[in-house]
Design a protein that fits this description.
Mean pLDDT of chain B: 92
Structural class of chain B: alpha/beta
Helix content of chain A: 40-55%
Number of helices of chain B: 23
CATH class of the largest domain in chain B: Alpha Beta
Largest sheet of chain B: 7 strands, mixed
Order of helices and strands of chain A: HHEEHHHHHHHEEHHHE
Strand content of chain A: 5-15%
Distance between the termini of chain B: 23 Å
CATH superfamily of chain A: Ribonucleotide Reductase, subunit A
CATH architecture of chain A: Orthogonal Bundle
Shape of chain A: globular
CATH topology of the largest domain in chain B: 2-enoyl-CoA Hydratase, Chain A, domain 1
Oligomer: heterodimer
Low-confidence stretches of chain B: 1-22
Radius of gyration of chain B: 24 Å
Number of domains of chain B: 2
Number of helices of chain A: 12
Radius of gyration of chain A: 23 Å
CATH topology of chain A: Ribonucleotide Reductase, subunit A
Shape of chain B: globular
Distance between the termini of chain A: 43 Å
Number of strands of chain B: 18
Structural class of chain A: mainly alpha
Largest interface: A-B, 16 and 21 residues
CATH class of chain A: Mainly Alpha
CATH superfamily of the largest domain in chain B: 2-enoyl-CoA Hydratase, Chain A, domain 1
Strand content of chain B: 5-15%
Chain lengths: 475, 584
Amino acid sequence: MTSARPKIDFDAKIPNNVDLAGDRKLQRALERWQPNFLDWWADMGPAVDTKDVYLRTAVDVGRDGWAHFDHVPMNEYRWGVFLSEHDPDRRIAFGEHKGEPVWQEVPGEYRADLQRLIVIQGDTEPASVEQQRFLGATAPSLYDMRNLFQVNVEEGRHLWAMVYLLHAYFGRAGREEADQLLARNSGSDDSPRILGAFNEETPDWLSFFMFTYFTDRDGKYQLGTLKESGFDPLSRTCEFMLKEEAHHMFVGTTGIDRVVRRTAELMADHDTEEVAGAGGIPLTMIQKYINFHYTVSLDLFGNESSTNAANYFTAGLKGRWQEERREDDHQLTDDAGHVDAYKDGQVTHNEVPALLALNQDLRHEYINDCRTGLKRWNRILAKAGIDAELTLPHVGFNRQVGAFAGAHITPEGRVIPESEWMAQKDQWLPTEVDKTHVRSLMHPVLEPGKIAGWIAPPSTGINDKPVDYEYVHFH
Amino acid sequence: MTVLEEPVNDVAADTAESARSEAVPHVDFDTGPERYRHWRFTVDGPTAWVYLDVAEDGGIVPGYELKLNSYDLGVDIELYDLTQRLRFEHPQVRSVVLTSGKDTNFCAGANIRMLAGSSHPWKVNFCKFTNETRNGIEDMTDAGQTWIAALNGTAAGGGYEMALACDRILLVDDRSSAVSLPEVPLLGVLPGTGGLTRVIDKRRVRKDRADVFATRSEGFGGRKAVEWKLVDEAVPRREWDRVVAERAAEAAGASTRPADAQGISLPPLQRTEADGALTYDHVRVTLDREARTATVVVAVPEMTDDPAALHDQGAAHPLLAIVRELDDAILRLRTNELEIGTWLLLTEGSTEHALAADRLLAGHQDDWLVAETTRYLRRVLKRLDVTSRSLIALIEPGSCFAGPFLELALACDRQYMLEGTFEEDEDATLPSGAAAEEPAVVVVTDAQFGTFPMGNGLTRLGSRFYGDDGEGGALETIRARRGEELTGGDADDLGLVTDAPDDIDWTDEIRILLEERASLSPDALTGMEANHRFVGPETMETRIFGRLTAWQNWIFIRPNASGPEGALRKYGTGRKADFDQKRV
């Protein structure tokens, strides 16, 4: 090494609690990676030209540090690297290494598996930024535009978190994988993102809210299982990411709240369910969007019966949701579990070793969590005196991955012939007509405090600022 | 390799059972003529007379008697020592007569009770070592010490295989002595010490006749054995002594070895052994049992390129000492440390010293001792080639992988070279413990281009770049850089190393690599490495270590051989093996 290398003030440029200034290896890796990231952000990040945005920046992991608010030019956002507090006594909570001290280095035996888990998680983070690249141009308010950008920069930071792990712990192979995270792009023909759901476009704001509610929630559950990992740096990274992920889901939950509320208002005002003509999104259309985004997200959990998940569990790499709160032996070698199955035209269950049923276990945790949103939205409808309910479709509906892939099952869970499916699917999933209608509503509203007609205003602003605060400045 | 012994009684069979369950014994390869229990030899002018005279109660482990001049690993360790002494202590010997010290037979081969009672790794290690010694005997013939088998009685199984390693086979024609390979018909295994291979490859016996011979337990004697080329001559008893002496004199007359050569003595190796460490004058081995790795450091001290120094210092000369120590360390690790699955090979010392050794070898091949030392190193390198361990060279500052010592790295499955030096990180000390401020370099010399062929007849570079030997190819490019001090970057560009991480990456890369390696199946690694190491042409040697050994090792673990009803276990019990008749 010569000293000709340009000196970067790492702590200032990259807020961190991983002693970046004292870690030569990491510095060198990030020096090379950061310019590539900035290029990627310029090419694939938000396409709307802004002066600055009222953003939250994590500058520390403590109560005060993790939410530091200020107007920041987007390209000067300081993507940080943070791990939650170190617990020197932490032990592996499950699998065959249960009770052993957690690993501070990657065990060579599990290098390939851990790297794969991190790469897959890392691949989803920038993907959503790419998927949402053009949304800013049709933001229904400055408040929403700001939220979009907040989600975007934080997905960017989550990419940093995964890249940090690859750089800090996986040597040369890790650096090469980190480069690939920027080389794959959502929807690209040549090098798409790894998981299917992250190659779907996010063409409108209803899709964005659905994505942040359903698909980011998958992220929450994946991060939650990685938080249990015996590889401590991964665990600590994910724990901190979960805080930010919660905000993304808040954007989705309240976004759909507001769409539902506005639809209810329009229904009351015009005394019809057909609010499309009045510039709203009909409940049936909202239901179709729910059906689509929920089922695509269910696919992200993989096959019902998974040897990979079993191996990860046994090795101590990836646990169950809230592993340590569960009351069993945390090894599951002798237990059995049930997984959804589709046999001879019937929806049924198979009994399998519990270790093989871990994906199903996680999917069901997720499904229960998704139900809370539905309750919320139905309360809004009930309050508005509307006698209709939004529902989650059957777990076998519209699935491309797992036991139900290829089956034709209605949202109510009835198995039907393919011909009937083809004839009815437009009642259940967004059609081109639906999408065109939603897109037709997408006009930007850039005046502080103003809001587009298809969505209700938020009840409160960000960080105690008023709703009509100028969250985004333009040139 | 095997075996005819008298049928054993149940007591012996029981003892064999108990031997099986015991832990693998610790094997020592140290011996010398004054300690031999199974061999004696006399040197008479240009001819050495070597007598196999096995002590029945001299088994290396308890549980069997070495009847009928049958052998076990202990017998073969002595044979190996004996070949070394003929090479170095008796360089004027030009022909070697291998015969039996018993009146009744030559050799019944490997002891069947020993085989039946041995663990699989023990059998495999035993076969590998005996094979290497047989190959060494052929090397000696090539080097002007021609071996003649004088079979003064029946040579069965491994006994005949020992004869097959000789240049010429004389069989006494007494109407009862025969040569045979009874392993298939009697034991359900193969003549695995080169027997099947040498019968067809070396002695050019027709395959249909080889088939008849190898399934006929009593074998052939007399004229038939000659006619089928199984032996060179069948000699009547009354002419035996005269003919054998004549053949020995003829072979001696055809040798070009210097008649006035003065041997050097091979004193016992100085070695200290403590758990986790094996320390010689120049070679140090440390074991990490938890990580299942051995670190082998070869320290190369200053030496001159003057062959007179080699003659003066003899076995104390650094180069010869290093080769002997390395040989011993390899054998010990291979036999005694079965769970140490990865060996890290390092060198330590000045590149100049290594290049002095290179000049010594390259410039004086007409000197018998230089030539013998070269052959010895060649064989030790071949031992590495057939070692069932993951071999990884770590090329760090302070190392001297140059000339002959670069072959050590090239024999490895992978080579990692530190680019630059360890800059700031005080924790990253060299495994060798050396302080080093200059970056590591490697130096390619003529030693990489023919001095040390592998079993496949190619050099290690030729194997590494198989087929890339044309104009502008890798081999030519590397040849043009001979003598240069090549840095990690250079070596990486030239393909001499697997990777050249810098100091920032080094520690993690190596740690992860080793941990990952240690998590893989030892069997799969052994098979994979053995396949990758030998590209290209087959030779008799590769067929013995590859095809014959692989089949033999498969048969060894099959129930038809080693199951409770298998032939190996049933032999000598008076009961027949009960075969699973499916052909696989």
